Amino acid sequence: MPASLSGEFINRRHQISYQIAKMVAKVASRVEILAKSGLSEIPAEYIRPESERLDLGDAFETAKKGAEDQLGPQLPVVDLQALESGDEAARRVCVEELRRAASEWGVMHITNHGIKPELVERLRKVGKEFFDLPVEEKERYANDQASGKIQGYGSKLANNASGQLEWQDYFFHLIFPEEKIDVSIWPKQPEDYIEVTAEFGKQLRVVVTKLLEALSEGLGLEKGTLDSELGGTKDLLLQMKINYYPVCPQPDLALGVEAHTDISALSFILHNMVPGLQVFYDGKWVTAECIPDALIVHVGDSLEILSNGRYKSVLHRGLVNKEKVRISWAVFCEPPKETILLRPLEELLADGTPPNFPPRTFEQHIQHKLFKKNNPEAATPPANATN
Ligand SMILES: O=C(O)CCC(=O)C(=O)O
Ligand SMILES: [Fe+2]
């Protein structure tokens, strides 16, 4: 490398490491503390850039407007009862509904998923009771993202140079498979947190199998294909993030979660019946309805890649509001980081269809996405790559 170029390279490297150090050093304070301090104006880091603010607002107002606007599109609702009813014709209709929802929207509500409402209610209760603890108590479980300890209690650190933050604190931990979970870092209060959450993880894994079978069938694949391509019972991980969104004095300026697609294969969302989730459909943000006993399912990037884009990874975001704390339980189904190569499945290319995504491990996909976010102008995708 010529001296001038290598000098520039080193300089640039220094700039980048300086920025990273700045980001890492900036330990985000808990949003709950800010919210409870009674401030009437939110700090600058939480104010979204002008381009994102046009259609922000109080989640309750937005949900009310959506409900009045009967003509507006609503997320599909798919009843899973027929998958196990023994009625083959009804089962096929359900598979087709799932295929359509995953292809057109990349998101849906599912009902009759098989997890008893009592267990879902208990999960909501133990998560809320944990977040009801004083912040000092929750700090005992604080994660340390800088040293790679990602599980635990946290708030978003800025991962871009502008230092933008989200109006949210969270608790993140693995809930399945059982052999890989580490309950020593899970909340010890309330006492039944571990029992209830571990049971939910087990039961949700059954739902994941069911959905991946139907979605495999929807692509014309053997029913076990997607599950095994994602690691199967041993290696597919279920990671739970309890998102805690305090009330916000200026919901028209902030976001609980900024617009993103999930890196997972599927994500499940359950919430405390406070609106906030919006999905991008047909050029507009649509606020998800709160449907009792339903789970929301997102298609994430990993499934979009395996399906060569036939299933869509949905763009979504979270609004906040002035009235009520919102809590959501997001469970991400993720392949192992290094051992599986995510790429469009061969069976889907057999007719000469070109691959829309280059092969990448899950970790490489995460790094690529981060790089693209921080260098929008530098990320020239390879031929055929749309993601
Ligand atoms: O709170 C929600 O409804 C969505 C959360 C979310 O998108 C996420 O945690 O990735
Ligand atoms: Fe998400």
Helices and strands in order, then pairings?
Layout: H1 3-25, H2 31-36, H3 50-53, H4 59-68, E1 77-79, H5 88-104, E2 107-111, H6 117-131, H7 135-139, E3 152-155, E4 169-176, H8 193-218, H9 225-229, H10 232-235, E5 237-245, E6 257-260, E7 266-271, E8 277-281, E9 284-287, E10 295-299, H11 301-306, E11 316-318, E12 326-334, E13 341-342, E14 360-361, H12 362-374
Parallel strand pairs: 1-2
Antiparallel strand pairs: 2-10, 3-4, 4-5, 5-12, 6-11, 7-10, 7-12, 8-9, 8-11, 13-14
Helix pairs in contact: 5-8, 6-8
Bound molecules: 2-oxoglutaric acid and fe (ii) ion (FE2).
The site of 2-oxoglutaric acid has 12 residues, from strand 5, strand 7, strand 11 and strand 12.
Properties at a glance:
disordered C terminus; binds 2-oxoglutaric acid; 387 residues; 4-stranded antiparallel sheet; 14 strands; alpha+beta
Describe the structure.
- The chain has 387 residues and is of the alpha+beta class.
- The chain is 35% helix and 18% strand.
- It has helices spanning 3-25, 31-36, 50-53, 59-68, 88-104, 117-131, 135-139, 193-218, 225-229, 232-235, 301-306, 362-374; strands at residues 77-79, 107-111, 152-155, 169-176, 237-245, 257-260, 266-271, 277-281, 284-287, 295-299, 316-318, 326-334, 341-342, 360-361.
- α5 links the parallel β1 (77-79) and β2.
- The model is unreliable at 1-27 and 380-387 (pLDDT under 50).
- Fe (ii) ion is lined by residues 260, 262, 267, 316.
